[in-house]
Amino acid sequence: MHPSDRYRSSALTVAVTGGDVLPSQSPHIPRGARGIADEAVAAAEAGASCVHLHARTEDGRPSADPQLFAEIAADIRGRSDVVLNVTTGGAPGMSVADRLAGMRAVRPDIATFNLGTMNYEGFPTPARWPTVKTDWERDVLEQSGHGTFVNTLAMLREFAAAARDLGATPELEAYDLGHVAMARFLIDEGTLQSPVRIQLVLGVLGGAGNDLEDLFMLRERALRILGDDLADLGVAATGYPMQLRHAAVALSLGMDCRVGLEDSLRVERGRVAESNRELVDAAMTLAACVGRPIAGPDELRGRLTPWRSSRQEVAA
After folding, report:
1. What tens digit of pLDDT does each residue of 194-235 get?
2. What Å distances lie between residue 95 and 113, 203, 260, CA to CA?
3. Domain architecture of the chain: domains with CATH
């Protein structure tokens, strides 16, 4: 822990629906504009600083429809001042235009920014595939082992320019050590303005594991590689119990953390979470146990870096 982190508050993000979990895996995955907004508002009322948004149609299919994103955001903003964080990762099969559509429709406070191309497997073992109810879910399962999460350098520059134009702060998603090095490069060339916000995403097959040692290693390297160019460091870990174990450790270290049904369907061993609020409640309990205050939305907004296009403009 750095001395400056000893007494700081942590931002708590809730990822309410995601683009990779299949609706057949849980009846509680939010879908449709109203369903997603209701989950986001309830999570904010429970103490979440920020809501991370994907869009799904009423049948649960991931969507890049800008009108759907706009409806979700308008409903949340009408009922809550929670910080809005919109995906640019999207879902498998989405184009660059699709992945930018939500950010452009919402003009959020924060937009995720994936730092590199990687294998990305949610259902690698056919013997463990869930029983699904729709043809499109079956197609997702049958594509397992053939997909790549593509984030070329040219795409990263395009995403950064779009975030800058919309005034959104990128939340850099680092799935492995090489992604931290990419953040360093993008800062040095002026594509990203420092200080940056990084989220370590753990437990996706193709990236780092989700042992606590993986968090400790990536945290130490991020601090060393980015130094004063690092503003906020958080963690999003997948699956039960690692989502909550990492939340407890991150909160103890003064880091930010993320919970939610996008990353874990269970809140206890053998029991699925019936809402995102349950996972936020668990994280709030952990924060209280380790004496870590959770940042309110206005406090989090105050930490976000205003955009300029390059180091030269910053210096000017």
Report:
1. 999 999 999 999 999 999 999 999 999 999 999 999 999 999
2. 15, 25, 25
3. 8-117+150-305 (3.20.20.70)
